[in-house]
Amino acid sequence: MTERTLAIIKPDAVQRHLAGRILQRVEDAGFQIRAMRRLHLSKPQAEGFYAVHRERPFFGSLTGFMSSGPAIVMVLEAPDAIKKWRTLMGATDPAKADAGTLRQEFAESIERNVTHGSDAPETAAFEIGYFFAWIDLIQ
Ligand code: CMP
User: Fold this and answer.
1) Nearest to residue 72, comparing CAs of 30, 124, 131?
2) What is the model's pLDDT at position 125?
3) Ligand 1 pocket, mutate which of 41, 68, 93, 111 (most atoms under 8 A from CB)
4) Which of 23, 102, 129, 135 has the smallest number of Cβ neighbours within 10 A?
5) Tens digit of pLDDT for each residue in 8-53?
6) Ligand 1: distance of its center to the CA of 111 in Å?
7) Is 116 an annotated catalytic residue?
8) Is the pLDDT of residue 139 over 90?
């Protein structure tokens, strides 16, 4: 089933000029990039996006990092896009990520882990709606 997911190229990857290589991997894997924008999140905007993690000990550090510089947010479309993008990213902790995944290849730490992806259809709906309007996604 064709599905959409929200993907982020995080500030560490943009700052290290890895965006082009990551986008190439996205296209090589067969995703359609349905929408894309570059933006520098404010701290409150990062806190809203990651609100589900607000009780976690790493919340302040995570939202500080995510608002530290520009990121690229996009809507990826493919059959089984949510799982497919999470597989390409690899495990959250790069030390545990499989060979050939983006995080194994590029991530510096569990926080500076280069990419984000929605983890379920409900999360994808919230996360896509956080950054994009309906009108951006009509073909
Ligand atoms: P992401 O997929 O964007 O979802 C939540 C983020 O929180 C995760 O990637 C990591 O960047 C970060 N994160 C998760 N666990 C930890 C942790 N134990 N320490 C620091 N950051 C974490």
Assistant:
1) 131
2) 98
3) 111
4) 135
5) 999 999 999 999 999 999 999 999 999 999 999 999 999 999 999 9
6) 5
7) yes
8) no
Q: What is the pLDDT of residues 75-90, one digit of tens each?
A: 999 999 999 999 999 9
| 55 alpha carbon – ligand 1 mean position (Å) | 13
Q: Are 92 and 103 in contact (CB under 8 A)?
A: yes
How far apart are alpha carbons 53 and 134 in whole angstroms? 26
Q: Whose CA is nearest to atom 11 of ligand 1?
A: 111
